[in-house]
Write a structure and sequence with these properties.
By secondary structure, the chain is an alpha/beta fold. Helix content is 40%, strand content 19%. The structure holds adenosine-5'-diphosphate (ADP) and magnesium ion.
């Protein structure tokens, strides 16, 4: 069976793309029997850096992918073809800019796109611009007989009025917002690890566990 590919993508840096990816990957690694590979395609290399720093064989696997190489698309496809045989789930930390081919290609190759959204006017505008590019990819995939699911996850949630505007995003580029969200909490800053889970899986009150349950359900894991 080939792996399910899930891209974490946004145009706006600082929305929590890498954070959400790492929290999710660690929970899957610790709580399920799924084999996870993270391909860090972002030039910032946040995931790869933390992975190297922790230097632990108790983590899920992380490789980085450099898009500024000759024939990046072909090599990316080759990398994925090999990885798909070995892993159940492949998470992509997609590069952060929408103009280049990198984001387009990362999404094209994915089954699911997870978009972290933060409720500031600038973030919402950038997210809408990003989501408007998705129908083009969907059309290409549909012609090949593949579907693309697009989910939004509200991150750094607080009590500002901008949060009411987030429902505007529903439906753009086929986006469906998660009903769970992550608050703005220091534990997400401090707790980033490729080895350790952020919380006890049994804690049913925990907002991360609500999100994680919804993630497993929506992504059919
Ligand atoms: N829910 C959250 N609560 C508090 N801090 C967060 C949360 N999500 C992300 N952060 C912090 O925000 C910053 C940007 O997050 P990051 O995951 O690096 O964003 P991106 O990958 O989209 O650029 C980091 O310092 C991270 O620790
Ligand atoms: Mg990042």
């Amino acid at each position: 069976m080939s792996a399910k590919i899930i891209a974490f993508a946004t145009q706006k840096g600082g929305s929590g793309k890498s954070t959400l990816l790492m929290l999710t990957a660690a929970a899957i690694h610790n709580r399920t029997d799924k084999k996870v590979l993270v391909i860090d395609c972002d030039p910032q290399k946040s995931v790869k850096d933390i992975y190297k720093h922790e230097n632990s064989n108790r983590s899920y696997d992380v490789i980085s992918y450099n898009w500024s190489q000759p024939k990046p698309e072909t090599n990316f496809q080759k990398t994925l073809a090999i990885a798909e045989k070995k892993y159940d789930l492949i998470f992509l930390d997609a590069p952060g800019k929408v103009e280049g081919k990198e984001v387009y290609f990362s999404i094209l190759i994915s089954d699911i796109v997870v978009v972290p959204v933060v409720a500031s006017a600038l973030d919402i505008k950038a997210t809408i611009n990003f989501l408007k590019t998705i129908p083009i990819v969907k059309e290409v995939k549909a012609k090949q007989g593949f579907d693309l699911k697009v989910y939004g996850v509200v991150n750094k949630k607080d009590n500002t009025v901008e949060h009411q505007r987030l429902t505007e995003l529903n439906g753009i580029g086929g986006l469906e917002l998660f009903s769970s969200s992550l608050s703005n909490l220091v534990r997400y800053k401090r707790g980033i690890s490729t080895v350790f889970d952020i919380t006890e899986p049994e804690n049913t009150e925990d907002e991360f566990n609500h999100y994680f349950k919804e993630f497993l359900h929506k992504c059919d894991i």
